[in-house]
Structure formats: C-alpha cells, structure tokens
Amino acid sequence: MSSKTKITLFSLTLVALLVVTGVNVYSAMAGDDEGESVSHDQMQEMMQANQQLENEVERLENEQEMEEPAAMQERQEALQEALQETAATFVETVYTEDAETYEDRKDEAETIMQDNLHGFLFSEDEQEETENRAIAEDAHFFAETGELNQSEATIMARFTQTYSTGSAEDSTLTFIELDAEQQEDGSWIIQDFRDAVESMEGEGDA
C-alpha cells in the first residue's frame, strides 16, 4: 500500500473518530433520560481529545501534500532512467558491427524493440565475418517528451560511432531520435527510429 493511500485511510479513520467524539460530547451535554451529565473535567478531557484528533488530521494532510511532489519526482526519475537504459541498449546493439557478437546483440535487441523493427534491423541469422568493425561510444540521451507520465516518449541519442577496417579508423558524430512506448510493467519498447539531423532539416523545409 502506498504512503498516500495509508495517509488517506488514516485520515478517514480520524475523521470518523471526530464524528463519534462530537456525538459523545453532544450526548454528554444533553444528558440521558435520567438527567445524568458529565463533570466539567470530563467535558474538558473530551474536548482536548477532539482537538488532538483535529491536529493529527491536519498534520497528516500537510505531510501528504509534502510527499506528493517528492513521489512524483521519484517516479519521473525512475521512468527517465528506464527510458535511457532502453535507448542505450538500442544504440549498443544496432550501431555495433562485429560478427562475433551479432547473435548476442540480436537476442538482446529483441527485448527492447518492436518485432517488425527487430526483424528489419536483424534480418540475418548471422553476420558475415569481415574486417569491418564499428562501435558506439560516448552516448548521451535527452528525453524530448516533457512529461513521462504518458505511455509514449521520444528520446534523442548523441554518440560517436567509430568505424575501423584493418588499421584505418574513422569516427562520426551521430544523432538519432527514438520513439518509445511504455509497457504495463514500466519498461519501454522502441517503436521506431530516425536520423535526427534529417528529421530537423525536414521540419525546417516544411
């Protein structure tokens, strides 16, 4: 049970006690059929107990108001972290070129991307052995969606892709955009990707 739910239930309980206390006070003041009434000290005790309950309800309400933004911030950070981990796996598996790790990368990529996209990017059962190598390094991720409390998000990835053939080596700064969809378990699945530079140029031409 969440802290918010516990506080809400406890508050409801305290409110119910306040109602009961109020009824008792009224009954005591009115007296029963035989004309009995409580003493001044007993009345004071009941009034003090009633005030203590009211103070406790107010304290819990204030505590709840303080916890809600913190809980929301914590959830946002968790979603951000999960999204970035998914994007990092995409970059590592898709933008690495190495025949020896192809099957492992293919299996890992299957867990973080949509089936059709996976079939397109890893269409072969194995990768032909060549001298060509490519690795993605120094990756940084920027969520373009302001609020991550929705089921869809877009994230930009910036990384350096280093190609090598024999002794020759060349590095390229790469920008891509990833469209992700959140699953029921909180994980993210990449639905599509595109070259971010071409995407921005296309928006400028529109």
From TrEMBL:
Keyword check for Coiled coil: yes
Coiled coil regions, renumbered to chain: 43-70
Keywords, sorted A to Z: Coiled coil
Record has Coiled coil as a keyword: yes
Protein name: Uncharacterized protein
Organism per entry: Natribacillus halophilus
